[in-house]
From TrEMBL:
InterPro entries: Transposase_17 (IPR002686), Transposase_17_sf (IPR036515)
Residue ranges occupied by any Transposase IS200-like domain in the UniProt entry: 1-48
Protein name: Transposase
Native organism: Desulfonema ishimotonii
A molecular-function term among this protein's GO annotations: DNA binding
GO BP terms, alphabetized: DNA transposition
Stored Gene3D superfamilies: Transposase IS200-like
Alphabetized Pfam families for the sequence: Y1_Tnp (PF01797)
Amino acid sequence: MEKIKTGSSKWIKTKGPRYQLFSWQNGYGAFSIGVSNSEALKQYIAGQKEHHKHRRFEDELRSLFRKYQIRYDERYVWD
């Protein structure tokens, strides 16, 4: 992840002045899906901006943690 975050951060900064202050958050999360769910994921990504006008990212992530019984500590999830 460190290499991906470093490389993509350097790349985006070459795309113009508006990206010069870009930085990733400290941590990261990774999720996987089955091939049978790939179309739903594409639709989610396409509508993500509108979706998060109605549901905060933090609330959605907490919901996923509960749904899939993932234990987490709030102190380490948010920057």
